[in-house]
Write a structure and sequence with these properties.
365 residues, alpha+beta, Peroxisomal Thiolase, Chain A, domain 1, 9-stranded mixed β-sheet, two-stranded antiparallel sheet, 13 strands
Length: 365
């Protein structure tokens, strides 16, 4: 039984940083010498992230100029502790989630009273009662809505959320599921000079995305249809990417070996998985590849023999918004489904700590 994605919605903070402003912040909290400052500037340039949103940003100066130190005063001379960062998550995550969820309900023409299951996704914050209870109250969902939270799974977690939604819809044909992923990555900027943490600082940003889905094809005229999903863990790669709770926020370890490790394992696994679905790799017409970074996209394109235009949306989201962790893949899928020329099989790919990979096969109806 397929899962029909009737409506989608995305949300980013209204306040944004240009790449130049992001570098200015990085110099202030990371660079310990002019040489490190120059290297940091090159790292930020290589990410291809031109602008990014942060819930922590304050308004621009009255004269229209950007005073980054004042705009991002959360990061002062000393690193905020984890409790401060989690207080900020509790303050800001709900409203960003609400914006995305409201858009998804409106886009799908689904009333909040129809929602039977609520799935929330995040790896950048924890609080209880959390975003799920906030959404129930603000969207006026039924108190009996069935809640599930998918936490700390990393950048592919929205695909895990859709898999859970798919299972709910198969179990109960009357189920109408709201999935909402919210990530406030800017809460976890790391202080000090450590190359892996500097790269993470350069890539990540804030965003939320939501989906309304069910097994009923009649709920909307145009749907993105989830057919199948799969998963794999790449052996002997657990130390290449990790996400840990520390005294000063959540710390990411991101080895430069990630792209080549993913590239070596991707093609044989994906061909076998598609063969089980009776699909040839060459017949896939649309690709939603999570832009963990530009090297991930380049590696995937090379290994899978993709035309550069086939990853246009993935690169565009990275450029416009940065890596918003789990929410990012839903941003890409939303852009793809809004293209009037989109048709045929669509494959979504995302990677996370483990190293693990998630795949989902969609059709455009």
């Amino acid at each position: 039984m397929p899962l029909f994605l009737h409506g989608m919605g995305t949300a980013v903070p209204t306040q944004r940083l240009s790449q130049a402003e992001a570098v200015e912040v990085a110099h202030r909290i990371n660079a310990e010498s002019p040489e490190q400052g120059r290297l940091m500037s090159r790292i930020y340039q290589k990410t291809k992230v031109l602008t990014r949103g942060s819930v922590l940003l304050e308004n621009d100066g009255l004269d229209g100029t950007s005073r980054t130190k004042e705009r991002l005063s959360f990061y002062g001379s000393e690193s905020p502790r984890t409790a401060q960062r989690m207080h900020a998550f509790n303050t800001y995550a709900g409203e960003l989630s609400l914006e995305a969820a409201t858009k998804a309900l409106s886009d799908g023409g689904v009333s909040s009273g129809a929602i039977t299951h609520l799935i929330t996704v995040s790896c950048t914050g924890f609080h209880s009662p959390g975003v799920d209870l906030f959404l129930i109250k603000e969207l006026d969902l039924s108190p009996s809505v069935q809640r599930t939270h998918i936490g700390f799974m990393g950048c592919h977690a929205a695909l895990n959320g859709l898999r859970v939604a798919h299972a709910f819809a198969e179990m109960d044909p009357k189920a109408v599921v709201l999935v909402c992923a919210v990530e406030l990555c800017s809460l976890h900027m790391a202080y000090g000079w450590h190359p892996e943490k500097v790269v993470a600082n350069a890539l990540f940003a804030d965003g939320a995305a939501a989906v309304v889905a069910s097994s009923d094809p009649s709920r909307s005229d145009q749907s993105l249809v989830l057919r199948r999903s799969g998963s794999t863990v790449i052996p002997d790669s657990a130390d290449l990417m990790h996400w840990e709770i520390g005294d000063h926020g959540f710390a990411m370890g991101l080895s430069p070996l990630v792209p080549e490790t993913v590239g070596a394992a991707l093609l044989p696994w994906l061909r076998d998985w598609l063969r089980d679905q009776s699909i040839d790799l060459e017949t896939v017409t649309s690709w939603a590849v999570h832009p963990g970074g530009p090297r991930i996209l380049t590696t995937c394109a090379e290994v899978l023999s993709l035309d550069p235009d086939q990853l246009h949306e993935s690169r565009g989201i990275l450029q416009d918004h940065g890596n918003m962790s789990s929410a990012t893949i839903l941003f890409i899928l939303d852009r793809l489904r809004r293209r009037s020329t989109t048709s045929g099989p669509c494959l979504a790919l995302a990677f996370g700590p483990g190293l693990s990979a998630e795949v989902a096969l969609f059709d455009f109806q």
